[in-house]
Design a protein that fits this description.
By secondary structure, the protein is of the alpha+beta class. It contains seven helices and five strands. A hairpin with a 2-residue loop joins β3 and β4. α1 runs parallel beside α6 and α6 packs antiparallel against α7. It comes from Rhodotorula toruloides (strain NP11).
Length: 253
């Protein structure tokens, strides 16, 4: 009994941790960070979140401009960099010239891959929006998982001995399922962002995956660890009979 209760408590602690990490990564504008090289006439630093983008430039020192991201009008119409306001051709030209100087053939290959991919009707807006929706869904699943663990522990503590065994034996399925779905959603969101960082020309030079992306990867890795542990516990028979309950059976009604 103590071993299984410890496992459920560990799952509860991990669920709280992953929900906190996912919430923080949703709110942070720190998924990708880009910076123009030193040879560029204007230094641009851009940070991307799931739903917003913020920019700083040497053209306007000390001024940070943020807006919703992605915008179909600004970001998904073939623009190299819709980071300021409409008509900011100066910023776009600076970025593309800097990326071309620094990226060379690799930057050109990214542009070609992006154009081919966009021809299929699926581009940055679709990928980024999918990542955002998947991440929001992971928050709902994480909260549902915490509730499921709490209800399982309450039922275990308040019910009779035989029912307590059944509660621990059956509860792992719901907990493992919700944690796996949560991990799947965060894996989808982080994968889409990483794919865009590797293929979109606006990230051709000076781009790095940020803190929010790292937190997401850590979150789904922790979830998968608990899921695998629960599955191994089930396969090895630890959930078939709780230690200390041998010889007891629920009284049939």
């Amino acid at each position: 009994m103590k071993g299984l209760l410890a496992l459920y408590l560990a799952a509860f602690a991990v669920s709280l941790t992953t929900l906190s990490l996912n919430t923080a990564s949703t709110l942070q504008i720190a998924w990708i960070r880009t910076k123009t090289p030193a040879i560029a006439p204007i230094q641009l630093t851009t940070t991307y979140g799931l739903f917003s983008i913020c920019e700083e430039s040497s053209y306007e020192p000390g001024v940070t401009t943020c807006r919703p991201f992605p915008s179909r009008a600004l970001d998904c119409k073939g623009q190299a960099r819709g980071a300021k306001v409409e008509g900011s051709e100066e910023y776009k030209d600076v970025w593309m010239s800097a990326a071309g100087l620094a990226g060379g053939k690799g930057a050109a290959q990214r542009v070609t891959r992006r154009k081919r991919f966009a021809e299929s009707g699926w581009g940055l807006c679709e990928n980024w929006s999918t990542a955002g929706y998947a991440h929001q869904l992971s928050l709902i699943l994480g909260l549902a998982n915490i509730i499921a663990i709490v209800l399982t522990l309450i039922g275990t503590a308040s019910a009779g001995r035989g029912y307590r065994t059944d509660k621990l034996r059956s509860g792992w399925k719901l907990v493992a399922g919700l944690m796996f779905l949560q991990a799947l959603c965060t894996c989808i969101s982080s994968s889409f962002i990483a794919w865009e960082r590797h293929h979109d020309e606006r990230f051709a030079h000076g781009s790095k995956l940020g803190r929010a992306w790292v937190e997401t990867v850590v979150a789904y890795a922790l979830n998968l660890f608990i899921v695998i542990t629960l599955l191994l516990t089930r396969v090895t028979g630890k959930l078939r009979m709780v230690p200390g309950d041998e010889g007891y059976e629920p009284i049939s009604s």
